[in-house]
Amino acid sequence: MDQAIEYGEEVLAARRAGVPIVALESTIISHGLPRPRNAEVARELEAIVRAEGACPATIAVLDGVARVGLGAAELERVANESDLHKLGRRELPLAMAAKASGATTVSATATLAQRAGIAVFSTGGLGGVHRGYVESFDESADLLALAETPITVVAAGVKSILDVPATLERLETLCVTVVGYATTTFPGFYLNSSGSPLSWSLDSPEAVAAVMAAREALGLHSALLVANPVPLAEQLDPSLHDEALAEALEGAQRDGVRGQQITPYLLARLVEATGGAALEANLAAVRNNVRLGARIAVAAAR
Ligand code: PSU
Ligand code: MN
Q: What's residue 4's pLDDT?
């Protein structure tokens, strides 16, 4: 077994029993959601995976150890420690050598999950190309990592704080396979649709599993992104969304927020500006992705 990674007990038992495993990221818990709700959500997401007959593997780095599958106390640490690093793929060796602790973003989680032999990974929304990219050059490492990581990621598109059409162009350039789940438009994270059209759509976990098998047969190194929209009934009101986003983007400019801080900053401002409605829509999207990820993992294991 892989020396660079330590596995949680539940994950080891699932391996032995042939139960499919679904990877979950930790940055959404530590940096993406407010306390104390975040700890509750972390547990809830794991429970959703179990209810579908799969095993959750939340991924983080604790005291320099890359962990695939966290115990209850470790999950609490991720939710409650205030000085956790936000670790992208490039930060993994730094945190490990320094014996530091950090939550893993999509790029780092996908890297560790794939290395652990896990085929499916569920998250909220991917990082991507930021608005104003031509000046800031801010594009999430999530995109390049997915180009190089053969894994299936279930996400509600990319965060709507981003430049969505530009991100879709980059996903194409990077050879990331993108398919809508029961939709012909790319999801808008808090919104059911971003308005950008998609050429391909699937509507069952079995159909996704068939694409995974074809990908593997070809030996492709890039990821499959299953773009799963938040249900219409649970989306954020679109006009409230647009208003709050404009306000948050303005605030980021005024406060000079940039780099790794910009995503957590914008997500938090959106929650504030919508009186918590953005948080509910975000959680609805994540739950929906975690459920679908588990169903895909179960279908792929058959
Ligand atoms: N989706 C959420 N909340 C989050 C994130 C995604 O609903 O906090 C995190 C993910 O970990 C993603 C990261 O990989 O934001 C992207 O950060 P950046 O834009 O700095 O690359
Ligand atoms: Mn960035």
A: 87
Coil, helix or strand at residue 203? coil
Q: Where are the beta strands (DSSP E) in 161-298?
A: 177-181, 201-202, 224-227
Which residue, judged by its Cα, is nearest atom 10 of ligand 1? 105
Q: Is pLDDT above 80 for 76? A: yes
Given a contact cutoff of 8 angstroms between Cβ atoms, the answer to whether 264 and 252 are in contact is no
25: annotated active-site residue: yes
- Show the domains of the chain with their CATH numbers: 1-118 (3.40.1790.10), 120-302 (3.40.1790.10)
**How far does the centroid of ligand 1 lie from the alpha carbon of residue 5, in Å?**
22
Query: At what angle are helices 277-301 and 37-51 packed, to 10 degrees?
Result: 30
Q: Which residues contact 242 (CB under 8 A, 6 or more apart)?
A: none
Residues 6+ apart with CB under 8 A from 288: 156, 228, 230, 231, 234
Q: Ligand 1: which of 30, 126, 263, 288 to mutate, judged by most atoms within 8 Å of the beta carbon? A: 263
CA torsion 159→163→169→171, rounded to 10°?
A: -30
Strands 65-68 and 120-122: unpaired
- CA–chain centroid gap for 158, Å, is 9
User: What is the torsion angle, in degrees rounded to the nearest 10, for the CA atoms of residue 133, residue 198, residue 301 and residue 112?
Assistant: 0
| Whole-number percent of the chain with pLDDT over 90 | 96
Q: Which of 24, 84, 123 to mutate to test the pocket of ligand 1 (most atoms within 8 A of CB)?
A: 123
Could you tell me the pLDDT band of residue 1, with boundaries at 50, 70 and 90? low
